[in-house]
Structures are given as structure tokens and as C-alpha cells.
């Protein structure tokens, strides 16, 4: 699913985020990208969903060379990837339903299809009863479930999550992890960036441990 | 291929953006309306100057004023000489002193107070030479005929209105050039105003745009509602400016021209044509789109390093 060959990323002013990264992530795998703050976890994810380009090296996602992907093809790559953030990145003036439907609206589906698929994923994340609520009326855990629903509504082959449970207490975090694992059981590849290894060790998942931009374990 | 319902979504989003911008929207529309209104004033001016010019050309004639108390034989001989000069290419009408006064009274029948001041008959008898309308018309030919007639005996003076036509032609040309110049400047101003308004809307919705990009929206999908918003700004301003222009024309200019004797001999002033109104509205809508596109271009530029 993802191949990284000698990937290096240097930001402006010479800040090196990743240094000679080689990694392979298979289809249907669960991978935890761990490491302390500033280790390069977010950069690792951003490269995969083509938010940034590597300074050098080759990166393939689903067989496509993302390191040299033209800008016009980026939206089509992203439609196959669901991204979940620590700060949820929800639209606060839109309802739960509209937030999830948004991901389908932008790819130009019909209203009937949008309704059907949105209700289906709201069911999965157990938020159907709150579909008319606005994000600020929800708890942190519920907001993260909305973000997950938005990420999976497109049936992505890959989910990227950047510290998805970082702001949540332990009980809710476990609940969120259950939703991710459910998506994985349906065949979705998971790449989760997190600063603690606990969950990864518990699941026995593949761990890519980063420190100062290098893979150390 | 975008689903037709997506178009409805664009319209809805454009209207939401439009309302959300609030005072900024009204300020932008207000300024663009005034800008287009100024442009409209010049269009109105040029339309009517062309009308005056046309009227003068249609009425191209030579008036030959005769000295008072000429014997009938002399008048006959002048008419024969004029006929020879004109060479049957026009119509020659003799208007006696008395007929001239009658005509004058008839034309000014609404202004009795002016006529009350006229004692005796100050008007001379004259020949009116109307040249047959022809594509071969030239002011040069008219001038040559007029000059030849002026040499004849018994002639008080000759008037052939060339000066007026020349002056109006020059003014029209100058205004045309001015409109091109001012149109460029006002168009640029409109572009900048709309571009700034849309840019503010874009900043307000930065997060929404970021999320749109992340879930795989194409740049055109993101652009569309903003292009529509810019177009709505332009179209509304265009319509308002024409409305304003019409109010000024109908309640200001038309009344002034109808009641003031200074303008009595000018043709009835006209409003700009439907085509011009359409062009003004369409171009302002187009400018609105272009303004949006400009700010979007900078805003949506890929930041992939």
C-alpha cells in the first residue's frame, strides 16, 4: 500500500523533519508511527496524503508515485484516503450530518446517495441521534467520532490519524480505537501517529518509531 | 462530471457567503455601483452627442439670408443662380420675411413672453437649400456651394452649420477616448474591490477550504461558489447603476431638457440602448468573476513544497 524509499524532508530554513526514511506498509495493515514531539510523525502523514512533497526519495501510495504527483491529481488521491486529526477539524457552523456529508458533497455525489452513505456511517460511529447537533454541542469523544465518520464515509482504502486520541481521556480513547479497529477489520489500512506506544503494543501492531526524523525501531 | 444537485449546492453556498460578508458586501456593491454609474453617465453623454451629430447631418442645409427690400426680379435671379450651383441635387425653398416670422412664432408658441419682446419683423427672408440625402455627402461640397452663393449680389449671409457639427464631432471623439481610459481605470477599480471582498470571505472560511482540500475537492469545486459570489456582486452593481442612471435621466435630465428653452433645438435626449445596458451588466458580472478568480488564484495556490 505505501512504500517509502530514502525519503528526506527538509523544510524552509533547513529544518530537517525526516531523514532517509525507508518503510513499507501493506494493504490491510495497522501501523503506529510513534515518537516524541518533533520526531517527524506529522510530516510522515502529510507526505502520504500529499500535503507536502519530499525533498528527496520516492514515495508510492497505492502504486502511485506521490513524490512527483501533479497538483491536479492530488484531490483524486485524497478521495481514497481518510484523515483524522487530534483537533478534529470540524466545521462548527455545520451540523454533524453536514460535516460528514461534506466529504461526499465535494466529490459531486447526488443528494440521495449522500444521505444514504452519511446515515450509514453515522450508524457505525453511533451518532445518528445527534445528526442535527452542531459540533460545539458534542463532547470531545463525539466530535472525534464525527471526524472518523467523515474519514470513512468515502470508503477509503487508507486511514491516516494524527494523534486521534491525544485530547481524550482513556475510556473515550479506547472507544475511538475500537472504531478504527472496526474499519481495519473491513479491510482499511490504518496509519496512526501517536506519541505513546501503549495502544500499539496492546494490539501488537507494526510500529515505526521515529526520533529526530529517523526510524529508530 | 458534476451532478446537477452540486450546482444547487454552489448557488446555496454563494448566497451564504454573500450574506455572511454583511457590511463588506454592501460596501463593495455600493462602490462598484457608483463606479459603473460614472461609466454610465459617460455612455449617456456619448449616446446623445451622437444623436445631435446625426440630427445635424440629416438636416444638412444651407440657409441663404437675403438683404431686406430686394426686388422680386433679384430674388428670382438669386434662386436661378442657386439652382445652378446646387445642380438639382437638392430642394430650394424660399421663405419670405413674413413666413420667417410666422415660423418663428409657431416654434416658440410656448414662450409667449419671449415673443412679446419682439417688435416689427427683425427676420430676413431666406432660401433654405436642403441637399438630397446621399452617401456622397461631404461637408467640403456643402462649404464650396455656400461660399459660391455668398459671393452673389443681394446676399446678407450664409449659414451652413459646419462649425457645430465639427465641434460636436471633436467632443464625441474626445469623450470616446475618455471613456476608454476611464473604463479601464474604473474596471480595474471594480476588479480590485471585488477581489478584496472575496479575499476577506476566503480568509473567513480558510478552515473550511482546508477541509475541502483534505477530503478531495478539486480547485474548481472550491472556486465555483466564490466565482458565483463575485458574479452576483458584479451583476447587482450593474443593475443598480443602471437603475440609478435611469432615475437621474428620467427625473433630472429629461425634465431639464423638456422645460429649458436652451435645449429646444436639440433632439429629444435618449437613454442608453438595451444593448448597452446588457453589456454594462454582463461586463460587470464578468469583472466580478475575474476579481474572484484573482483572489482565488493566490489563495488556492498549491503550497506543496
Features:
heterodimer, A: 217 residues, alpha/beta, Rossmann fold, B: 305 residues, alpha+beta, Alpha-Beta Plaits, 2 domains, 10 helices, 4 strands
Structure, described:
The complex is a heterodimer of chains A (217) and B (305). Chain A has helices at 41-48, 74-78, 96-105, 111-124, 140-152, 170-185, 198-203; strands at 2-10, 16-25, 30-34, 56-61, 64-65, 81-85, 158-162, 189-194, 206-211, 214-215. With 217 residues, chain A is of the alpha/beta class. Chain A has a single domain, classed as 3-Layer(aba) Sandwich (Rossmann fold). In chain A, the strands form 2 sheets. A 6-stranded mixed beta sheet of chain A has the order 6-7-8-3-9-10, with helices on both faces. A 4-stranded antiparallel beta sheet of chain A has the order 2-1-4-5, covered by helices on one side. Chain B is built from 10 helices and 4 strands. In chain B, helix 2 (23-58) crosses helix 9. The longest helix of chain B is centred in the middle third of the chain and has 43 residues, at 162-204. Chain B is elongated. The two termini of chain B are 30 Å apart. The mean pLDDT of chain B is 80. The A-B interface holds A 11-12, 49-53, 71-72, 74-79, 83, 89, 91, 102-103, 105-111, 150, 154 and B 1-3, 5-6, 9, 207-208, 210-219, 221, 302, 304-305.
SS-based class of chain A: alpha/beta
Helix content of chain A: 25-40%
Residue-averaged pLDDT of chain A, rounded?
89
- Tell me how many strands of chain B there are: 4
Which spans of chain A have pLDDT < 50 for at least 5 consecutive residues?
A: none
Largest interface: A-B, 29 and 22 residues
- CATH topology value of chain A: Rossmann fold
Work out the helix count of chain B: 10
* Broad CATH class of chain A: Alpha Beta
* Dominant shape of chain B: elongated
Q: Give me the secondary-structure category of chain B.
A: alpha+beta
How would a crystallographer describe the biggest sheet of chain B?
4 strands, antiparallel
- Report how far the terminal alpha carbons of chain A are from each other: 21 Å
Strand content of chain B: 5-15%
Amino acid at each position: 500500500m505505501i512504500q517509502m524509499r530514502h525519503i528526506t524532508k527538509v523544510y524552509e530554513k533547513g529544518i530537517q523533519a525526516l531523514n532517509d526514511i525507508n518503510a513499507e506498509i501493506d494493504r490491510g495493515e495497522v501501523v503506529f508511527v510513534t515518537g516524541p514531539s518533533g520526531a517527524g510523525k506529522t510530516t510522515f502523514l502529510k507526505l502520504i496524503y500529499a500535503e507536502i512533497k519530499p525533498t528527496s526519495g520516492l514515495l508510492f501510495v497505492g502504486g502511485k508515485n506521490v513524490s512527483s504527483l501533479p497538483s491536479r491529481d492530488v484531490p483524486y488521491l485524497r478521495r481514497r484516503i481518510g484523515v483524522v486529526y487530534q483537533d478534529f477539524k470540524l466545521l462548527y457552523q455545520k451540523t454533524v450530518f453536514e460535516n460528514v456529508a461534506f466529504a461526499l458533497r465535494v466529490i459531486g455525489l447526488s443528494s440521495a446517495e449522500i444521505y444514504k452513505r452519511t446515515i450509514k456511517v453515522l450508524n457505525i460511529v453511533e451518532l445518528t441521534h445527534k445528526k442535527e447537533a452542531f459540533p460545539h454541542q458534542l463532547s470531545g469523544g463525539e466530535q472525534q467520532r464525527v471526524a472518523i465518520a467523515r474519514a470513512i464515509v468515502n470508503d477509503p482504502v487508507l486511514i491516516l490519524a494524527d494523534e486521534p486520541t491525544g485530547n481524550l481521556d482513556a475510556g473515550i480513547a479506547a472507544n475511538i480505537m475500537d472504531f478504527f479497529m472496526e474499519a481495519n477489520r473491513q479491510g482499511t489500512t490504518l496509519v496512526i501517529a501517536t506519541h505513546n506506544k501503549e495502544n500499539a503494543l496492546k494490539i501488537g501492531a507494526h510500529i515505526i518509531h521515529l526520533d529526530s526524523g529517523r526510524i529508530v525501531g | 462530471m458534476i451532478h446537477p444537485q452540486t450546482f444547487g449546492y454552489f448557488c446555496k453556498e454563494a448566497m451564504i457567503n454573500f450574506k455572511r460578508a454583511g457590511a463588506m458586501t454592501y460596501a463593495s456593491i455600493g462602490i462598484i455601483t457608483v463606479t459603473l454609474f460614472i461609466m454610465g453617465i459617460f455612455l449617456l453623454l456619448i449616446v446623445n452627442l451622437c444623436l445631435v451629430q446625426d440630427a445635424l447631418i440629416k438636416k444638412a442645409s444651407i440657409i441663404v439670408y437675403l438683404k431686406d427690400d430686394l426686388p422680386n426680379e433679384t430674388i428670382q435671379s438669386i434662386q436661378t443662380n442657386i439652382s445652378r450651383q446646387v445642380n438639382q441635387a437638392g430642394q430650394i425653398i424660399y421663405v419670405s420675411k413674413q413666413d420667417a416670422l410666422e415660423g418663428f412664432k409657431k416654434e416658440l408658441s410656448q414662450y409667449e413672453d419671449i415673443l412679446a419682446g419682439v417688435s416689427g419683423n427683425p427676420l430676413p427672408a431666406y432660401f433654405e437649400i436642403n441637399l438630397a440625402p446621399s452617401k456622397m455627402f461631404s461637408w467640403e461640397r456643402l462649404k464650396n456651394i455656400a461660399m459660391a452663393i455668398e459671393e452673389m449680389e443681394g446676399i446678407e449671409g450664409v449659414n451652413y452649420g459646419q462649425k457645430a457639427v465639427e465641434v460636436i464631432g471633436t467632443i464625441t471623439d474626445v469623450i470616446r477616448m475618455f471613456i476608454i481610459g476611464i473604463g479601464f481605470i474604473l474596471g480595474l477599480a471594480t476588479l480590485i474591490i471585488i477581489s478584496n471582498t472575496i479575499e476577506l470571505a476566503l480568509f473567513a472560511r480558510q478552515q473550511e477550504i482546508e477541509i475541502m482540500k483534505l477530503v478531495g475537492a478539486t480547485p474548481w469545486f472550491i472556486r465555483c461558489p466564490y466565482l458565483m459570489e463575485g458574479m452576483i456582486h458584479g451583476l447587482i452593481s450593474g443593475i443598480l447603476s443602471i437603475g440609478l442612471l435611469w432615475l437621474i435621466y428620467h427625473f433630472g435630465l429629461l425634465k431639464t431638457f423638456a422645460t429649458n428653452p436652451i435645449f429646444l433645438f436639440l433632439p429629444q435626449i435618449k437613454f442608453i440602448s438595451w444593448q448597452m445596458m446588457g453589456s454594462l451588466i454582463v461586463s460587470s458580472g464578468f469583472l466580478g468573476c475575474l476579481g474572484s478568480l484573482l483572489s482565488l488564484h493566490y489563495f488556492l495556490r498549491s503550497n506543496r513544497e
